[in-house]
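User: Could you write out the 3D structure of this protein bound to heme C? I've included everything you need below.
Assistant: Certainly. Input first, then the structure.
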Amino acid sequence: MKTNHRFAIPLAAAIVALTASLPARAVDVEAAQALAKKSNCMKCHSVSAKKEGPPFKETAAKYKGKADAEQKLITHLTTSPKIKVDGVEEEHGDLKTKDEAEVRNVVQWILSQ
Ligand code: HEC
């Protein structure tokens, strides 16, 4: 039997178009939470409550609609910037991974709160 290629190409094109119209990447929430926990982030942060650090909902609101949000937070979470905790300067913790995709996933998770 001859395979019918007539539909295969439009179908493939439709799938590509559909995929491109989805948000950039789907967030792997479980992986993000696991890495945040492993990196001790949740000691100072929670999704919605103020602890030593701002809640992730507040950070998401602060960066909403900002094109450089992802890059800013990647820098924040990979370069140990100096921050003030209760008026005392210390280094902000980094995510415990060398994998940029994992960092990005946590950043997207924070921004989606
Ligand atoms: C010792 C406590 C502490 C730990 C641990 C900590 N943070 Fe923070 N974080 C803070 C404080 C305090 C701020 C606010 C700093 C400022 O505004 O200068 C902050 C700021 C942030 C922000 C907002 C940055 C911005 O540009 O608005 C994000 C997002 C964040 N932390 C995520 C994380 C993640 C993810 C981790 C784990 C890798 C983590 N934090 C670990 C205390 C902490």
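The mean pLDDT is 89.
User: Perfect, thank you.
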